[in-house]
Amino acid sequence: MSHLSRDASTLLRPPNTAPVIAPPEELPVDHVLVLKVIPLPGDANANGDIFGGWVMAQMDLAGSVLPARYAQGRMATVAVNEFIFKQPVRVGDILSFFAKMERIGRTSMTVNVGVYAERFANQGTYIKVTEARMTYVAIDDHGRPRPVPNTQI
Ligand SMILES: CC(C)(COP(=O)(O)OP(=O)(O)OC[C@H]1O[C@@H](n2cnc3c(N)ncnc32)[C@H](O)[C@@H]1OP(=O)(O)O)[C@@H](O)C(=O)NCCC(=O)NCCS
C-alpha cells in the first residue's frame, strides 16, 4: 500500500447508523415521481452521512425531467432558487424524488422537487429529507435562450 492510499484509508468513516427522529409524511399527490436512487458508501461525507453535493446533483437531474417535456430539446439549469436540507440522508436509504411544474415562462421553467427517504431498516415509511425549487432554460444550439415550444401538456 502506498503512503498516499494508507493516509486516505484513515479518512474513511463507517456509515452513520444513529437513528434520526423525524415524523413520517404522506407522499405528495400533486407531484410526479421522477427518480428513485439509493446512495452508496462512496457517496458519504466524513460524518458518514450522504454528501450534500451528491444530493444536489441528483436533485438537478430529477428537476430536469418535467421541464424536458416542455423544452423538447437542449436546456440548462439557470438557478437553484431554493434548496433546503431538512433531514440527513443515510447510506442505503431509498430516495424518491417527486416533482411539480410551478411556472412556465417564455424561455424558462421552474420546478419544485421534494425528496422522501425510506430508511434502510424502515421501508414503507417516508421522511421528507430535502426540497428545492430550480429553474431551467430552453437553449438553442448556440447556448442562447429559446422560447419554450410546448407550454401545454
Ligand atoms: C441559462 C442561460 C442560457 C440564460 O441566459 P441569459 O442571457 O442569462 O438569459 P435571460 O436573462 O434572457 O434569462 C432567460 C430566462 O431565465 C430566467 N432567469 C434568469 N435568471 C434567473 C434566476 N436567477 N431565477 C429564475 N429565473 C431566471 C429569466 O427570467 C428568463 O426567463 P423567461 O424567458 O421565461 O422570462 C445562461 O445564463 C447560461 O448559459 N448559464 C449557464 C448554464 C449552465 O451552465 N448551467 C449548468 C450549471 S452547473
Automatic annotation (TrEMBL):
Keyword Signal: no
Gene Ontology MF term list: long-chain fatty acyl-CoA hydrolase activity
Cross-referenced InterPro entries: Cytosol_ACT (IPR040170), HOTDOG_ACOT (IPR033120), HotDog_dom_sf (IPR029069), Thioestr_dom (IPR006683)
GO biological process: acyl-CoA metabolic process; fatty acid catabolic process
UniProt entry keywords in alphabetical sequence: Hydrolase
Protein name: Acyl-CoA thioesterase
UniProt xrefs under Gene3D superfamilies: Hotdog Thioesterase
UniProt family annotation: Belongs to the acyl coenzyme A hydrolase family.
Domain HotDog ACOT-type intervals: 29-142
Any single GO CC term annotated in Swiss-Prot or TrEMBL for this entry: cytosol
